[in-house]
TrEMBL record:
PANTHER family linked: NITROGEN REGULATORY PROTEIN, PTS SYSTEM FRUCTOSE-LIKE EIIA COMPONENT-RELATED
Domain PTS EIIA type-2: 77-221
UniProt enzyme class: transferase
This protein's name: PTS system enzyme IIA component
EC number: 2.7.1.69
Family as reported in the entry's similarity comment: Belongs to the EUO family.
Keyword Transferase: yes
Alphabetized GO MF terms: protein kinase activator activity; transferase activity
SUPFAM superfamilies noted in UniProt: Phoshotransferase/anion transport protein (SSF55804), Putative DNA-binding domain (SSF46955)
Length: 227
């Protein structure tokens, strides 16, 4: 889907001038149609995931908006609403996703086969591994029209070697994202990638913590970045 500058600014919660600055500096993927700038929805999403630092949502806004934005896109609330699943069986990425959806789809009151197909469709466009053994499965766009976001952290029974990660590492942890809007979708992608880029938090994830332990770490981390 083609996006204009105003659309990207709205999704990323920044000013249109910020987008123009990033275009001028070559910091964001774009293309031209005649003299107009256009953006691919999937390329913007991948840029959000791959940037790792993911501090775009803190730029070009005042201090009040920074805090409000971080509270609005709360990873703590999303995982609290979702959950943490251990020892999900499967010898391949598809099998693990399918087996996870057999559980998660019930919580979301959705068809597990349709949900699996949507997730695999996104994976076929480009694998969602973000490095260091972590995957971030999600659909192309937000489609769950609820008033809440859900993130499910899934630890497969065995690491997935065929995930297609750029660093070539097997994926041992999956963050499944189901957001209530496209804006929430992109900002939570950013937050998860940012969270997983922190060395001590990557080490925590490798230990496959339970929900209580993981939420406690996320609560402390988010309280720090919200200040």
């Amino acid at each position: 889907m083609d996006l204009q500058i105003k659309d990207v600014a709205e999704l990323l919660n920044v000013t249109e001038n910020a987008i123009k600055d990033w275009v001028t500096a070559g910091q964001i993927p774009y293309y031209r149609i005649d003299s107009d700038f256009r953006f691919s929805r999937i390329e913007i999403e991948d840029w959000v995931i791959r940037s790792q630092k993911n501090d775009f949502h803190l730029r070009n806004v005042d201090d009040e908006a920074k805090g409000r934005g971080n509270r609005q896109f709360s990873l703590y609330r999303a995982i609290h609403k979702g959950g943490v699943l251990h020892s999900i069986p499967g010898k391949s990425k598809e099998e693990v996703i399918r087996n996870a959806m057999a559980i998660i789809a019930k919580d979301l009151a959705l068809d597990k086969d349709i949900l699996t197909d949507l997730l695999l469709d996104r994976e076929n466009l480009q694998p969602t591994a973000i490095g260091s053994g972590i995957g971030l499965p999600h659909t192309r766009e937000a489609f769950i029209k609820n008033s809440f976001d859900s993130v499910y952290v899934v630890f497969p029974e065995r690491a997935i070697s065929d995930y297609g990660a750029l660093d070539g590492k097997p994926v041992h942890s999956l963050f499944f994202l189901f957001a209530a809007s496209d804006k929430n979708h992109l900002h939570l992608l950013a937050k998860i990638a940012h969270f997983c880029a922190q060395q001590h938090l990557k080490q925590l994830i490798e230990k496959k913590p339970n929900k209580i332990s993981l939420l406690e770490e996320i609560k402390q981390w988010e309280s720090h970045i919200n200040t």
